[in-house]
Amino acid sequence: MAYRSNAAEAQYSDPSDSDREFGADLPLDLLPPTGLTQPLWRSLIGNLRDTFAPEKLPPLHLTSRTVDTGLALGERLRMPWFRTVFTNIGDVISPETLPPLELESRPVDVGELITDQLSHFWWGSLLRNLADRVAPEAQPKLNLTAKPILDIIPKSWILLPMWSEVVDTPKVFYPDKPKTAESVRPVNLQPVVVPVEKRDPIPELTAADLLRDIRRSRIRQRIWVGLAAAQVVYMVLAAVGKL
Predict the structure, then answer these.
(1) How many angstroms separate the Cα of 229 from the Cα of each of 92, 96, 224, 238?
(2) With a threshold of 0.90, does the pTM exceed it?
(3) How would DSSP label each residue in 145-204?
(4) Using CA atoms, how far apart are residues 31 and 43, in angstroms rounded to an integer?
(5) Is the distance from CB of 29 to CB of 5 less than 8 angstroms?
(6) With contact defined as beta carbons under 8 Å apart, do 7 and 31 qualify?
(7) Which residues in the chain land under pLDDT 50?
(8) CB atoms within 10 A of CB 23
(9) CA-CA distance, 38 to 14, in Å (whole number)?
(10) CA-CA distance, 119 to 113, in Å (whole number)?
């Protein structure tokens, strides 16, 4: 594998077999490409040339394996809802036989899964806890790579306890200071004139006013019922369209 930038690939040819060996000295060029610092007019001319007279490149050689992903996501979303229902029913009745799964990673034993532990009954965990208390599992000795610190607290320090922890005396609570009684001031009560509230006369309701209010309430009721029915129809149509 050649560790080269775009500028280095234009100057050097393909590496030979000797350069591909592990540990071979490879020329490194970590400088940015020359096209990064070119002026604006040269970049504009280059873009126009690539648009009208593009460079003819050799065909692309792919070394990776193609993977059959099945039906594209866009085509799957454009399918009508009844086809997806029939497809789901067919997958339940006669599922597709897939090739065995190829795993490239190494499996790791994680013990019992959390979902399996939660599905156990409560007396199982109780017996397990009692067994761990009575006969705990012998674990191997822990191998520590860090060196222990001998003197965490320097010898030049002096640790002194707090004086409240050293002195042992009964607690003394001093009485509260007496509050000085304030002199009672005489209060001169004088009559206050309260203004009389003027109320507007209540208008008398007639039969025509009652009929008008009932008619308006019925109109408002029909409007709100119509809006609710329109929302229900819209939600049903949206649900059917998504299926």
Answers:
(1) 37, 44, 9, 14
(2) no
(3) -SPPPS-SS-TT------HHHH-------PPPPPPPPPPPPP------PPPPPPPPPPPP
(4) 19
(5) yes
(6) yes
(7) 1-13, 15-23
(8) 5
(9) 27
(10) 10
Under a CB-based contact definition with an 8 Å cutoff, are residues 5 and 30 in contact?
Answer: yes
In the block, which residue shows the tokens 């329109």? 230
CA 148/CA 138 separation, integer angstroms = 24
Taking only the tens place, the pLDDT of each residue in 34-77 is 777 888 888 888 889 888 888 888 888 878 877 777 778 888 88
Which residue is it, tokens 């454009």?
78
Structure token pair of residue 23: 């540990």
Q: How far apart are CA 131 and CA 121, in angstroms?
A: 16
Cite the beta strand spans of the chain per DSSP E: none
For CA atoms 97, 100, 103, 107, the dihedral sign is: positive
CA dist 136 → 128, 139, 142, 152 (Å): 10, 9, 16, 33
Please report, to the nearest 10 degrees, the dihedral formed by the alpha carbons of residues 69, 72, 77, 81 taken in order. Answer: -60
Q: Residue 27 and residue 231: Cα distance in Å, rounded?
A: 70
Structural contact between residues 28 and 3, judged by C-beta atoms closer than 8 angstroms: yes
The residue written with tokens 């090739």 in the block is 99
Which two structure tokens, joined as six digits, stand for 86?
């029939």
